[in-house]
Every structure is written in structure tokens, then in C-alpha cells.
Design brief:
With about 150 residues, the protein is an alpha/beta fold. It folds into two domains: about 35 residues, no CATH class; about 120 residues, 3-Layer(aba) Sandwich (Oxidized Rhodanese, domain 1), CATH 3.40.250. The protein is about 30% helix and about 15% strand. It has six helices and eight strands. α3 links the parallel β4 and β5. The longest helix is centred in the last third of the chain and has 12 residues. The N terminus is likely disordered.
Length: about 150
């Protein structure tokens, strides 16, 4: 069964994705249900008001540049910080329809995180294909300034 997706693309339902058990199977099933952006598309959407959330580990964030204007939120607290109904959500989490673009180092963790947030009811969450490494390889803006960390 092919279903329309929020982004206008079609996807196969997760129950139809033939994937092996284990982490890569879970990743394939999750990606079947989310939209993903190229780094260039993510940058363009950021310029139009979408918020990029850097979910790389602290070690990876500290050892590499960051994306100007992005927020750094640990995966362990991400669902609570982006949930507009939660008491300790960040101020930007004002709607389930806010456009969130998640980015990790290679695009694996961010895919699972985007899928989890979609399961919570966030309707416009995506991740970046290839993660920060692809962003940097595309020559998109980075900064050595400390990231805007949201604990």
C-alpha cells in the first residue's frame, strides 16, 4: 500500500518495508515514514525559518564546527524539549507544526529521532541525509562559535 506523505511524496507504510532485524532494519523502517532533506534543502529551509537541531554527541559537537543558528539538544531530552505541551519545552517549541530539521554526524541517529518525534505528533520534522559530514562536504556555512545548547 502506498500512502501520501506530508511532504507530498509517497512512501510505503512501515509494515511493507522489507528490512532485516536489528538496527539497520529499524532505520529502514523509520526512514520509510519520514521525509529527509539534502543538506542544501535543509539550509534553504533554515533560511525560510525552519529550526535546525544538532543532535550530535557532545564529543562530536565539541570537536567540530557547528551550523550557524542551530540549536544543540541531546537526544536523551529531545522529545521533551520539542513537545509544546511539556513544562520544560524550549520556547521555540510552540506548535506541533513547527518545522524541525534534525542533524547528527552521519544521518543515522537523526533519522530515528525524527521518526520518534513524528510518533509523538510533531507533523513537520525531518532529518538531513548524510548528516553534518554531508553538510560540511556541501560547503554550507559552519561556525566555530559555541553552539546554542539547550539542556
Amino acid at each position: 500500500m502506498t500512502l501520501p506523505h506530508r511532504g507530498g511524496r509517497e512512501f510505503r507504510g512501515a509494515d511493507e518495508v522489507s528490512a532485516p532485524p536489528g538496527s539497520m532494519g529499524l532505520l529502514a523502517r523509520a526512514r520509510a515514514e519520514i521525509d529527509r532533506l539534502t543538506p542544501t534543502e535543509a539550509h534553504a529551509e533554515q533560511q525560510d525559518g525552519a529550526i535546525i537541531v544538532d543532535v550530535r554527541t557532545e564529543v562530536h559537537r565539541d570537536s567540530a564546527p557547528s551550523i550557524p543558528g542551530s540549536l544543540a539538544i541531546d537526544l536523551t531530552v529531545l522529545p521533551w524539549r520539542l513537545d509544546p505541551s511539556f513544562d520544560w519545552a524550549i520556547p521555540e517549541a510552540d506548535s506541533l507544526d513547527r518545522r524541525w530539521i534534525l542533524i547528527c554526524r552521519h544521518g543515522y541517529s537523526s533519522s530515528l529521532a525524527a521518526w520518534n518525534l513524528a510518533q509523538m505528533g510533531l507533523t513537520r520534522v525531518v532529518d538531513v541525509i548524510g548528516g553534518f559530514d554531508a553538510w560540511k562536504s556541501a560547503g554550507l556555512p559552519t561556525t566555530n562559535a559555541p553552539p546554542d545548547r539547550r539542556p
